[in-house]
Fold:
Amino acid sequence: MTREQLVALARRLDTADGTEEELQEIMNVLVRTLPHGDILQLLYHTRPELSADDAVDEAMRRQRAWEEDSRTS
Structure:
């Protein structure tokens, strides 16, 4: 998925735009796409709150770092 697609999904979660089932599937997609990025933690449990853009950027950074670390280990 592209960054823009991930941000769009994160924004839908942020605004609760969808049914409960749709929002759960969005969460599942984000977690599957960025399994080591802690995206849900970044979206819901940071102070000050992060925007959807910032949360996705940080999750993507964490995911890349994890992938790099796992290749060198």
The mean pLDDT is 95.
